[in-house]
Amino acid sequence: MPGLLLGDVFPDFEAETTTGKIKFHEYLGDSWGILFSHPKDYTPVCTTELGRAARLSEEFSKRKVKMIALSIDCLEDHHGWTKDILAYNCEESACSSLPFPIIADYKRELAVALGMLDPDEKDKDGMPLTARCVFIIGPDKKLKLSLLYPATTGRNFDEILRVVDSLQLTSGKRVATPVDWKPGDCVMVPPSMSEEEAASLFPDGVYTKDLPSGKKYLRYTPWP
Ligand code: BEZ
């Protein structure tokens, strides 16, 4: 059974969070959204990830991306754990709260509905924990990107920011971003675009790499 697919409208769930009850679409408003899940409160890798996410929150805000975390424990645990996250990750008294809410999915309802459980990681009662999922949702509420890491592998939030930059660029312009791309680098002309169209759409020029096949598909143009 396929789970959520790219282009699907993201479910408009209701949830309890550390900042109150939310309806997801209302919470997002007309922003982009990123929902990232965590296996369990009071766990080491998650503590480092949430701290990094908090430190990058201004970068996400600049890009009009609303962040929200999820973990399968109750609000009381989330509030207690938040103090540890802040103590571990912030300069003394530099921050008093996380800059995004954490969903309390203590019944694992969202974890199941969104296909986020990691079959290899169980809690002490044998219940599966959540994997490290990342969902990036566009202002149209459609799923633009999903990542799924096992509980034992922490994510790279610089990479998540990088893919937001690519998603936002490619949602407005008919270009694609190559390997390891970052803002300012050249972008690629999509294979479906004819040479004539590319010439008129990219007045700064299109550079085509000669290849043994003779096919002219490796086309770069300066960052728009
Ligand atoms: C962690 O966040 O450290 C963690 C959680 C579940 C399994 C392994 C590591």
From TrEMBL:
SUPFAM superfamilies xrefs: Thioredoxin-like (SSF52833)
Gene Ontology CC entries for this record: cytosol; mitochondrion
One GO term (biological process): cell redox homeostasis
Enzyme active site: C46
Zinc-finger keyword on record: no
Domain of life: Eukaryota
EC number: 1.11.1.27, 2.3.1.23, 3.1.1.4
Domain spans labelled Thioredoxin: 4-169
Protein keywords: Antioxidant, Multifunctional enzyme, Oxidoreductase, Peroxidase, Redox-active center
InterPro entries: AhpC/TSA, Peroxiredoxin_AhpC-typ, Peroxiredoxin_C, PRX_1cys, Thioredoxin-like_sf, Thioredoxin_domain
Catalytic activity entry: 1,2-dihexadecanoyl-sn-glycero-3-phosphocholine + H2O = 1-hexadecanoyl-sn-glycero-3-phosphocholine + hexadecanoate + H(+); 1-hexadecanoyl-sn-glycero-3-phosphocholine + hexadecanoyl-CoA = 1,2-dihexadecanoyl-sn-glycero-3-phosphocholine + CoA; a 1,2-diacyl-sn-glycero-3-phosphocholine + H2O = a 1-acyl-sn-glycero-3-phosphocholine + a fatty acid + H(+); a 1-acyl-sn-glycero-3-phosphocholine + an acyl-CoA = a 1,2-diacyl-sn-glycero-3-phosphocholine + CoA
Gene3D superfamilies: Antioxidant, Horf6, Chain A, domain2, Glutaredoxin
CDD domains: PRX_1cys
PROSITE patterns hit by this protein: THIOREDOXIN_2
GO molecular function, one term: 1-acylglycerophosphocholine O-acyltransferase activity
Function of the molecule: Thiol-specific peroxidase that catalyzes the reduction of hydrogen peroxide and organic hydroperoxides to water and alcohols, respectively.
Similarity-based family: Belongs to the peroxiredoxin family. Prx6 subfamily.
The protein's name: Peroxiredoxin-6
Annotated organism of origin: Lates calcarifer (Barramundi)
Primary gene name: LOC108883839
